[in-house]
Amino acid sequence: MWYKNLTFNANFYTLYRIFSAKSNKLSPFSVKTVVSQLSDLSKKAQDKMNSVNNFAGLLEFEKEFLGKKSELAKISRDLKNLPAEEKKEIGQQVGKLRQELTTFISAKKEEFSQQELAQKLAGEWLDVTKEIPRKKGTLHPISQIQQKVEEVFTSMGFEIADGPEIETEWNNFDALNIPAHHPARDMQDTFWISRENSDSHKNYVLRTQTSDVQIRKMLKHGAPIRLIAPGRVFRNEDLDASHGNVFYQVEGLLVDEGISLSHLKGTIETMLSEIFAKKVKVRLRPGFFPFVEPGFEVDFSCTLCEGKGCKTCKNTGWIEFMGAGMVHPNVLKNCNINPAKFSGFAFGFGLTRLAMMKFGIDDIRHLSSQKIDFLSQF
Ligand code: PHE
Q1: Where exactly are the structural domains of the chain?
Q2: Does the reported pTM lie above 0.70?
């Protein structure tokens, strides 16, 4: 290593000779003492250099050889007692030794701080490609049911349709055979966005039902038509434990030649049997909706008790499920479809009830609880 090659030692003998001959201030003995001190010091320093292997050791070394109380400092102080010439000569040697020691120390400092940094970096190293176990999210039960419903209907040739949540009064009410002041409007408490216009095409509501999509699509595509329209609907109702004011509905519409109620029943039974993966029965009870004639309330056989009667079906064996019926001729006419040629069925159901039945959820509030522990079960 470089510090093994300290060069000044060779000169000490020469110096000694000079001092012995010329000095008149110090006795040759004193000069000799200084020279041998320097020589000893240099040897001592060289011996110790090899054993300096850490910062603490280096600081000790620095203090010992360059500190205020070091031999070198003492020799430097003694220099003033030497005659000018010798002072210069020997002073140079002292300076050289000091320089070599300083160089050694700063090189070692650098070496140790590099080592320290390397150690630190090795300790702090992190693998950015390492896979961190993460909890995967799950689809909300309502989304899962919606996807399943879409899958079943798509396989029966239905299209998935969509419509805006802010809807004209005309599409949401008038076209569906619910004129202004008709008592049926009271069935659906409405969030009005604007209602001051006499033209119902120019007033806006948050749609109260997905039936508006029937109108939009029949106007655009005419008949035959076969679609379902899942989406959110809004009702201006007081909130309590079992009532929200945003619901998820799925609208269904099929208009073609020769469509009858049996098509409706068959379609719904097929859909429910697919979703529950078992035979589900459907029954129709008379019901009133202005846009269908005849209109029905549709129930399905309780999938929890198989129709025997339980808490969920209130011991009736049936679950109230949806509104449905044959599309009213006025609605077809409003959409420029000839009721003499075409007939169709329409239905609308809520996804919440279906999700609760499918997953055995007994409290509607769980669905909007946003509790991960609960939701990740599905
Ligand atoms: N739109 C009705 C509701 O929201 C449901 C319905 C749809 C009834 C289609 C009959 C036909 O209550």
Answers
A1: 2-124, 141-375
A2: no
Q: Which residues are paired to 312 by β-bridges?
A: none
pLDDT the model gives residue 320 = 95
Q: Which of 142, 176, 352 lies closest to 253, judged by CA?
A: 176
| Nearest atom of ligand 1 to the alpha carbon of 349 | 5
Mean pLDDT of 130-139: 84
Give residue 289 CA to ligand 1 midpoint distance, Å.
7
Over residues 118-147, the mean pLDDT reads: 88
Are 240 and 225 contacting, i.e. CB atoms less than 8 angstroms apart?
Answer: no
Q: How far is the CA of 291 from the centre of ligand 1 (A)?
A: 8
Query: Token pair of 103, please?
Result: 């160089």
- Residue 275 and residue 243 in contact, taking contact as beta carbons nearer than 8 Å: no
- Spatial neighbors of 104 by CB under 8 A, at least 6 apart, are 3, 49
Q: How many C-alpha atoms does 270 have within 13 Å on its Cβ side?
A: 13
Instruction: Say how far apart CA 206 and CA 189 lie, in whole Å.
Output: 10
Q: How many CB atoms lie within 10 A of CB 109?
A: 14
Assigned fold of 141-375: BirA Bifunctional Protein; domain 2 (3.30.930)
In single-letter form, the type of residue at position 244 comes to G
Task: Check: CB of residue 35 under 8 Å from CB of residue 16.
Answer: yes
